[in-house]
Amino acid sequence: MTRRPSPRAVRLLASAVGMGTLLTMAACMHDEDRAGGTMERRQARPVASPAAQRASASPAAPATPTALTDAQAQGALLTDADLGAPWTPTEGAALWRDALLKATTEDADCGRLLDAVYTEELLGEPAGARAVAGFDDYDEGGQLRYQVTAAHRADVDGRLAWLKTMPRKCARFTAVGPRGARQEVRVTEVGLPEAGDARQGLRLSTRGELDGAPATLTLDLAAVRVGDDAIVLTNGGLAEPRTEYTVHAVQVGAERLKQTRQDPPAPPQTPVEDPSQSPSPTQSQSPTRGPVQPQPQPQPQQQEAEGNGEGQDWEQAQDQDADQDQDLY
Fold it and tell me: Is 278 exposed, middle or buried (0-12, 13-18, 19+ CB in 10 A)?
């Protein structure tokens, strides 16, 4: 006959089973908490966006170009050696400038063009550094004016676009000279080589009076943008200008300006001085402030006298050495 368990044994067994269940649930909850915390920590790590990843992988933006300096503008100028014969450095403004270029007209655009040619500011007033060189052609009586200026790119491009409209807007108009004489003006386009980043060429011809006699002035005008800088050129005179000089000056000048902007400026060179040789009061002046004066050459008689003096000094020194030797002994 099977013996039934007592009520106390049943209660103890139920308590043990319940305790085991509670422990098992607690262990599971602890594992879930650990897993959840790990997941939360993983999700809390910042993840870079695709745009940020592309930005970090892309190269740094190029540095903003520095403004043209006066030294760079001067170094980018043309020389008479670049142009060749018959050009030589100018001796001053041509006589026809005031007589034939200083004119007015009722048309606003055409008057603006005349003012720009007279003041040599085809691209407007320079915004920074500026250097100008002038050359004369005495064979043809012409003059070439070349300048390098600092400018704002957007302003230059806008001015070039305006110049491009001049052959249509101001193809032919009438102006009045400084003495009231009427002048007939024509404007046409001149083709320029593919130099620089943007360019425009014009030919302006005006017929008026010079010293009471009929005269015609013809000028080639060129404006070129090279990066954030600009070149302005006028070439002509009372004879028809040779456009090959205009083309050559634009080609050489644009390349020189570009190269000048790429090369870093050379540091000033200071001559090395020997501290053991202290200059005398008469030699303390810098040699760059004046030409070095040649020293007079001694005459033959003076050289012979100086030679005799040197021989006597040498003999006296030998006698003194001999006396010192006798004293020692």
Answer: exposed
Q: Count Cβ atoms below 10 Å from residue 177 Cβ, excluding itself.
A: 19
Q: Is the peptide bond before 271 cis (omega within 30 degrees of 0)?
A: no
List residues bridging with 329 in a β-sheet.
none
The alpha carbons of the chain give a radius of gyration, in whole angstroms, of 45
CB-based contact 147:133 (threshold 8 Å): yes
DSSP 235-257: EEESS---HHHHHHHHHHHHHHH
Hunting for tokens 């003096």 — which residue is that?
309
| Chain centroid, CA 215 distance in Å | 40
4 Cβ neighbours under 8 A, 6+ residues apart: none
Is the dihedral angle over the CA atoms 72, 256, 86, 103 positive or is it negative?
negative
DSSP 150-206: E--HHHHHHHHHHHHTHHHHTSEEEEE-TTS-EEEEEEEE----S-SSEEEEEEEEE
pLDDT tens, residue by residue, 277-321? 444 443 333 332 233 333 344 444 444 444 454 445 544 555 555
Based on the number of CB atoms within 10 Å of its own CB, is 268 exposed (0-12), middle (13-18) or buried (19 or more)? Answer: exposed
- Please tell me whether the overall predicted TM-score, pTM, comes out greater than 0.70 for this model: no
**Tens-digit pLDDT profile for residues 130-139:** 999 999 998 8
Q: Which residue has the tokens 């050696």?
A: 81
Q: Is the pLDDT of residue 79 over 70?
A: yes
Beta bridge partners of 204: 187, 219
Give dist(CA 236, CA 219) in Å, integer: 4
| Interatomic CA distance for residues 78 and 128, integer angstroms | 19
**Spatial distance between the Cα atoms of 208 and 115, rounded to a whole number of angstroms:** 17
Number of residues written out for the chain: 329
